């Protein structure tokens, strides 16, 4: 039986957890009822479900027979891509896209040949005019135009500026135009600091976060219920807890539980229990690993200073541990919040914001310690790092093991 879960990136899940408000708002935006949400910027951590939500929006636009112009950040020129997709849509909508006329008929009448001229064959028509015509043709049928851009944080600034001018002009002239961009929160913040991104700065901001545990458990239960197998309520709740409501982990926890149950018709609590360590390890590998690799040493020190606390950390304690003054501390606090790595807890406290980030940091710290040992600093340490399951590598134990 095929595993119905979709752990990975950009893979739409069988059951979408916790996005109904965003989806109904988008419906309203398509109907023209929410003009302030016609330009939207989806942001959030890696694996929180930005690409999936953007795809859902695109599907809604397509269902409403809107013309969809998806842009890809990998393209060498964003405006060329916008032009090419606009032309492709125009060819579908424009009755005059191709004019065909008789060029000559022989006496018998059978040798008539037709010459076909493609109105959009040349590249000389200004992009603004093409977009205008597309929006006008779409509006004639009561539809609109949607422009979508994922991974917006990776787009070249100058190119982004150029296409956003076109999009802005288009929105000014036509009612039924929707623009949705999505990107990693930290990258998006940096992008918005840039002077030429006013348009994006003014866009409606949709910040995605985790869903609650009950919703996650229900999504897991429903995903299994759509197959020939079932999952007990306790097992679904436990898998939901392991996911901590984080969308990528919903799929990962569900997928591991599915496999752990083997051929059994029902997934039981015991099947789920044993999967936690594997789920954590994969989360570290696929989500935290890439994020922590690019982290500056100062930010890393800050995060590691938080590991001494079981729960939220007092910012004064962090400053003391780092041996820095509180102002310096608050600079890094702000940056790490932008990076989605920590979040404010109660007044004067912060906590690690993503599930299993603590385990990832502890594993990295141990990994570095092991590298130091391997390089001959101390050969007496015997316990190999790989023997320490992330779930056991908690603060106190970690320090004792040194
Ligand atoms: N609302 C959701 N409910 C359940 N699973 C989801 C949801 N959104 C995303 N996922 C799953 O989470 C993972 C990451 O989704 P993706 O959209 O690629 O994240 P992002 O673009 O934010 O990095 C995928 O495995 C996807 O199937
Ligand atoms: Mg994505």
UniProtKB/TrEMBL annotation:
<dbReference type="InterPro" id="IPR041664">
    <property type="entry name" value="AAA_16"/>
</dbReference>
<dbReference type="Pfam" id="PF13191">
    <property type="entry name" value="AAA_16"/>
</dbReference>
<protein>
    <submittedName>
        <fullName>COG family: RecA-superfamily ATPases implicated in signal transduction</fullName>
    </submittedName>
</protein>
<feature type="region of interest" description="Disordered">
    <location>
        <begin position="372"/>
        <end position="402"/>
    </location>
</feature>
<feature type="domain" description="Orc1-like AAA ATPase">
    <location>
        <begin position="16"/>
        <end position="178"/>
    </location>
</feature>
<dbReference type="InterPro" id="IPR027417">
    <property type="entry name" value="P-loop_NTPase"/>
</dbReference>
């Amino acid at each position: 039986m095929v595993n119905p879960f979709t752990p990975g990136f950009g893979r739409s899940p069988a059951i979408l957890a916790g996005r109904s408000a965003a989806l109904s708002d988008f419906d309203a935006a398509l109907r023209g009822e929410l003009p302030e949400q016609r330009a939207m910027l989806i942001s959030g951590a890696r694996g929180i479900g930005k690409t999936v939500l953007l795809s859902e929006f695109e599907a809604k636009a397509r269902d409403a027979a809107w013309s969809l112009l998806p842009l890809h950040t990998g393209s060498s020129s964003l405006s060329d891509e916008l032009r090419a997709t606009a032309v492709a849509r125009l060819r579908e909508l424009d009755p005059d896209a191709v004019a065909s006329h008789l060029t000559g008929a022989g006496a018998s009448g059978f040798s008539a040949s037709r010459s076909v001229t493609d109105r959009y064959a040349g590249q000389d028509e200004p992009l603004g005019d093409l977009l205008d015509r597309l929006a006008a043709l779409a509006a004639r049928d009561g539809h609109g135009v949607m422009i979508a851009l994922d991974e917006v944080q990776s787009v070249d600034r100058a190119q982004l500026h150029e296409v956003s001018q076109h999009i802005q002009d288009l929105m000014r002239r036509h009612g039924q135009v929707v623009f949705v961009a999505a990107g990693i929160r930290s990258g998006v913040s940096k992008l918005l600091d840039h002077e030429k991104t006013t348009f994006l700065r003014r866009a409606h901001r949709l910040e995605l976060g985790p869903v609650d545990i009950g919703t996650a458990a229900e999504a897991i239960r429903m995903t299994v219920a759509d197959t020939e197998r079932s999952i007990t309520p306790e097992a679904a709740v436990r898998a939901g807890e392991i996911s901590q409501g984080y969308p990528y982990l919903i799929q990962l926890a569900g997928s591991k539980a599915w496999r752990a149950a083997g051929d059994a018709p029902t997934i039981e609590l015991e099947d789920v229990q044993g999967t936690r360590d594997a789920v954590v390890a994969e989360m570290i590998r696929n989500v935290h690993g890439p994020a922590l690799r690019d982290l500056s040493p100062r930010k890393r020190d800050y995060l590691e200073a938080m590991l001494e606390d079981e729960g939220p950390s007092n910012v004064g304690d962090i400053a003391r541990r780092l041996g820095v003054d509180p102002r310096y501390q608050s600079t890094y606090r702000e940056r790490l919040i932008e990076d989605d790595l920590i979040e404010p807890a109660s007044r004067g406290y912060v906590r690690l914001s993503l599930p299993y980030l603590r385990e990832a940091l502890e594993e990295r710290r141990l990994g570095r310690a092991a590298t130091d040992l391997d390089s001959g600093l101390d050969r007496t340490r015997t316990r190999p790092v790989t023997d320490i399951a992330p779930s056991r590598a908690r603060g106190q134990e970690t320090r004792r093991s040194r």
